[in-house]
Design brief:
By secondary structure, the protein is an alpha/beta fold. It is built from 17 helices and 14 strands. It has an eight-stranded parallel beta barrel, surrounded by four helices. Strands 1-2 form a two-stranded parallel sheet. Strands 3-4 form a two-stranded antiparallel sheet. 41% of the residues are buried.
Length: 447
């Protein structure tokens, strides 16, 4: 039985059509570029929740999605049918990875025992498919935010029973991660924050969260689940303040509670924008700290102040993101690009899921091609090197070597004139830089 009325998506090459087609123009998975295959640079992953569970609701409207497994009314029958549909989808799209929350896969029962039993039935089927297809799990995670019991958080809940439930749910999720061979495990603190400080012990909640992460890492080690642990920053939604506001805040938390040796970051484009940053900024912060783990591929709408998870299509942004990746040489030790993306509410037909992934995969493949060309030509490296060249000799070299103090620098600078100080600066020519990047985008993708 086929669930999707579309042929396998293949690489067709650029310039075959100016209109979008059911083929890739820039993503050629087995093409060697920059020393390795494109599929190994990008490691694309399909997000189970948005692709197969998302009903395309928004705050003002019910779901519009039409899905090929909607004919199943029994929740478990539908859950098992989704697995069949999912693996056909992966095959037709030509991806190597997928990602999921535990509650994406199967309905909850009245007790955690019943819920685990439902989940295990679906995971059994996934594991069988993995054996025959070779599909891999980029990461899995635990949904500790949807159910009303998480109204005040999970690891940061003021209610001890909810902390204990969260730990037990996570325990089983880690066991599932081992069963499916997940390469990473992500923690997204959907409700780990506060609504008001008047009734919040913020320090205690953060200590509880840190304890939760340490317990998770300890249990993963105990059962032999060798996944890279990842924390995912998000600034707001749904709480007034999220404890993992952005990359820098999360890194500070990790260092405060001795988590930075075992955890890295999973970063998302839309979350970066909500924090008032670019995606490139968040990746740079993580890269500079040696803590880049993996990436969620999506974009927001800068005219809308909430998390809409669009499929990425902005080439300037994908070039910027992939420039950071090629500078590092990889996304992360085991990372990839997971499409935490969904179609717009008006794009409700089943094949819109394919078109969304096509634009996302082609956009990041195009970004990779341009970023590698920028790196090859050392366009930005030379600019940066020239800008900071005054630190290569003289007083600059002494400053960096720690060989001068404030008095030494006062003696050096005190009699220099305003004209001399002005002459020590140079124009950054930012407009010219942006124009150059535009030329690289156009010329690289036109070949």
């Amino acid at each position: 039985m086929s669930y999707w009325n579309i042929d396998k998506i293949n690489y067709i090459g650029p310039h075959k059509s100016l209109k979008s087609t059911s083929g890739f123009q820039y993503y050629n998975p087995d093409e060697v570029i920059g020393g390795k295959k494109m599929r190994d640079w990008l490691r694309f992953s399909v997000a189970y929740w948005h692709t197969f569970d998302q009903r395309l609701v928004d705050p003002f409207g019910d779901g519009t999605a039409i899905r090929p497994y909607d004919k199943y009314s029994d929740p478990m029958d539908q859950a098992l049918a989704k697995v069949d549909a999912a693996f056909e989808f992966y095959d037709k799209l030509g991806v190597d990875f997928f990602a999921f929350h535990d509650r994406d896969l199967a309905p909850e029962g009245d007790t955690l025992r019943e819920t685990n039993q439902n989940l295990d039935k679906v995971v059994d089927k996934i594991v069988e498919y993995q054996k025959t297809t070779g599909m891999k799990v980029l990461w899995n995670t635990s949904n500790l935010f949807n159910n009303p019991r998480f109204v005040a958080g999970a690891a940061t809940s003021p209610y001890a029973d909810i902390f204990a439930y969260s730990a037990a749910q996570l325990k089983h999720s880690l066991e599932i991660g081992k069963r499916v061979g997940a390469q990473n495990y992500v923690f997204w603190g959907g409700r780990e924050g506060y609504e008001s400080l008047w009734n919040t012990d913020m320090k205690r909640e953060q200590e509880h969260a840190a304890k939760f992460f340490h317990l998770a890492k300890d249990y993963a080690k105990e059962i032999g689940f060798d996944a890279q642990m990842l924390l995912e920053p998000k600034p707001k939604e749904p709480t007034t303040h999220q404890y993992d506001f952005d990359a820098a805040t999360t890194i500070a938390f990790m260092k405060e509670y001795n988590l930075d040796k075992d955890f890295k970051l999973n970063l998302e484009g839309n979350h970066a924008n909500l924090a008032g940053h670019t995606y490139q900024h968040e990746i740079r912060v993580a890269r500079d700290a040696g803590l880049l783990g993996s990436l969620d591929a999506n974009q927001g709408d800068k005219l809308i102040g909430w998390d809409i998870d669009e499929y990425p299509s902005n080439l300037y942004e994908t070039v910027a993101a992939m420039y950071e990746v090629v500078q590092l040489g990889q996304i992360g030790p085991r990372g990839g690009l997971n499409f935490d993306s969904k179609p717009r509410r008006s794009s409700f037909e089943p094949n819109d899921l394919f078109y969304g992934h096509i634009v996302g995969m082609d956009s990041f493949a195009a970004g990779l091609r341009v970023a590698l060309k920028l790196k090859e030509d050392k366009v930005l490296e030379n600019l940066v090197s020239d800008r900071y060249s005054s630190y290569n000799s003289g007083i600059g070299a002494q400053i960096e070597a720690g060989k001068v103090n404030f008095k030494d620098m006062e003696d050096y600078i005190i009699d220099k004139t305003q004209a001399e100080l002005r002459a020590a600066t140079h124009s950054d020519h930012l407009e010219q830089i942006k124009d150059t990047i535009n030329h690289y985008i156009v010329e690289t993708l036109s070949k």
